[in-house]
UniProtKB/TrEMBL annotation:
PROSITE patterns: EAL (PS50883). It comes from the Bacteria. Residues 321-560 form the EAL domain. Residues 41-69 are annotated as: Disordered. Transmembrane segments: none annotated. This is EAL domain-containing protein (Putative c-di-GMP-specific phosphodiesterase class I). One of its GO terms (molecular function) is cyclic-guanylate-specific phosphodiesterase activity.
Length: 560
């Protein structure tokens, strides 16, 4: 029976060894026993040199020696093939690479075979042993990597991934979402700094960061030449995106020396938008070597996908913001804002008690005037547009009969704006009603009430619209204590045919009387509605049946 057949059971047992050192020890024992050698050695190699050594007798490699010190071993490392020499000082030496289908893991050597020397059978046995040792070591390393990945992707990583995913599902500002995802990347991988970069025009620009940027001498907005970056090398395929130890990577080590980067570990992936367009990179770095595993790179790719969607959301919002700003600019330009008025009629006499100034935007092609104001508020220019509308409305005041008031609209933020006081302070007392519109619900009443008190001292009355549309609107009325209450159009429309609407309208009449406020019915569109409202005691009305909005000079009811 051949020497190889005699050692089959030994080869199988290698896979049962609990750790790499045990595999190495068992491999050397089998090699010495199977070849009749008087000594044997084996080494396992890592990024920084020898990681494990095992020797029996006076081996080819002594503990602590470098693999390349022996010429025979050096030949094995270079050729990745078994090498046999009969003229060595030990009476003959045989060495084989510990390699399977992947990287070279180490070298197995036997020496001093006795009188017969090493033959072909011995070379077959040692080569097979070395290869089986490589499979055993690779299996142990795969198990260890899987365990590490399992730990990373167990509860902490699941929570991290869930947090990152929730960012995309929440209605959150996109770049805040990117910052949160960067925090997840940095904390999950145990790195010092996470960076989103944009690549273009020969530079890599740092857009967002999470972590200790000062430790690496970098800052948001900084641009560096592409050739100086790891990320560009990853994009070109010159280096892996996973570098646990930069000192052991030729490119990384050279970059660190040349540029003084101080990077000990790196994990980075390309960053693309949802349409596939390259945006830049997502990377994490640390000043020290870190135990990164392939699963970390996969996790970072998943986060890069999330960031890509957030960047696309951000660009879409910025595009919409630019469009809204351009639309607001057009509305604020000469001729971009026009004012019409709609009479508020005393239902008992038929005379005009006041007019409401309403804005029209000829250049706007996106919906109603309310949509224009909403768009302006979305880009932080709502107050500016409302004040411009108020300026245009106030210019009509000298042309109104002296016994007709002017009702102008303003949201709570504009009411609190100090610029409003200066505008109304120049106008006659008792001629202006400030109708508070609500783009958003009032969350903080004291500042609003203080502003209304200042307006009251200037002779400005306050109106609240949409009264009766719900409990919140009634609470708003009670808090503001207006001089005019505008009955919501949903209570007015169909009041002549719906008993429940009549009951609510009657209740609002009593409610206004108790508060000492005048009640104005909005949206009066038919003669039947007008008749019922009069019967219910509603004193004032406004709507298409009475008069449509029109330029001041075209309002027939105001001609006297």
């Amino acid at each position: 029976m051949s020497a190889l057949a005699d050692t089959i059971d030994d080869l199988v047992r290698l896979n049962a060894r609990p750790d790499e050192q045990a595999v190495l020890d068992e491999t050397v024992d089998i090699a010495v026993r199977s070849t009749g050698a008087r000594s044997g050695s084996a080494v396992l190699l890592g990024p920084t040199g020898t990681t494990h050594v095992s020797s029996r007798g006076r081996g080819a490699l002594e503990p602590g020696s470098a693999p390349g010190d022996d010429p025979l071993v050096r030949d094995v490392l270079q050729t990745r093939c078994a090498v046999r020499r009969a003229d060595s000082p030990r009476g003959g030496t045989l060495a084989a690479p510990i390699v399977a289908d992947g990287p070279l893991l180490g070298v197995l050597c036997v020496a001093d075979p006795g009188d017969g020397g090493f033959g072909d059978d011995h070379e077959v046995v040692v080569t097979a042993l070395a290869r089986q040792a490589a499979w055993a070591v690779s299996g142990l390393r795969a198990q260890r990597a899987a365990a590490e990945l399992g730990e990373r992707l167990d509860e902490p990583a699941t929570a991290a991934a869930t947090t990152a995913l929730q960012v995309t599902l929440q209605d959150e500002e996109p770049m805040r979402a990117v910052d949160r995802i960067l925090d997840v990347a940095r904390n999950h991988l145990g790195m010092s700094l996470a960076i989103v970069s944009r690549i273009g025009d020969g530079v890599q620009r740092y857009d967002r960061m999470s972590g200790a940027a000062q430790d690496f001498g970098v800052a948001v907005g900084q641009a560096v030449p592409l050739e100086a970056t790891y990320c560009h090398a990853v994009l070109e395929g010159r280096i892996s995106g996973l570098i646990p130890d930069a000192a052991a990577d030729p490119f990384a080590a050279a970059q660190n020396r040349r540029l003084g980067l101080g990077i000990g570990a790196y994990c980075g992936v390309p960053l693309r938008l949802p349409d596939g367009e390259l945006y830049g990179s997502l990377c994490t770095i640390s000043p020290d070597a870190e135990p990164l595993v392939p699963g970390d790179l996969a996790f970072l790719r998943a986060l890069a996908d999330l960031i890509g969607h957030q960047l696309e959301r951000h660009e879409r919002r910025e595009r919409e913001r630019r469009e809204r700003n351009a639309a607001v600019d057009a509305c604020l330009a000469p001729g971009g804002l026009q004012v019409v008025v709609q009479p508020i009629v005393d239902l008992t006499t038929g005379s005009v008690a006041g007019v409401e100034a309403l804005s029209r935007f000829p250049s706007w092609d996106g919906g109603s005037p309310a949509d224009v104001f909403d768009a302006a508020h979305q880009v932080g220019r709502g107050n500016d547009l409302e004040l411009a509308a108020i300026d245009a409305a106030l210019r009509l005041l000298p042309d109104l009969p002296r016994d007709v008031y002017l009702s102008i609209n303003a949201g709570p933020a504009t009411v609190r704006d100090e610029r409003l006081l200066g505008r109304v302070a120049r106008e006659p007392r008792g001629r202006i009603v400030m109708e508070i519109t609500e783009h958003v619900q009032v969350s903080d009443y004291p500042p609003l009430l203080a502003a209304l008190d200042r307006l009251a001292k200037l002779g400005v009355a306050v109106a609240v619209d949409d009264a009766g549309s719900g409990f919140a609107s009634l609470q708003h009325v009670l808090t503001v204590s207006p001089q005019l209450i505008k009955l919501d159009v949903t209570l007015v429309r169909g009041v002549d045919t719906d008993p429940s609407r009549r009951a609510l309208a009657r209740a609002m009449v009593l409610f206004a009387e108790e508060l000492g406020a005048r009640l104005v019915a909005e949206g009066v569109e038919t003669a039947a509605e007008l008749l019922v409202l009069r019967e219910l005691g509603v004193r004032y009305g406004q709507g298409f049946h009475l008069a449509r909005p029109a330029p001041l000079g075209e309002q027939v009811l105001l001609r006297r």
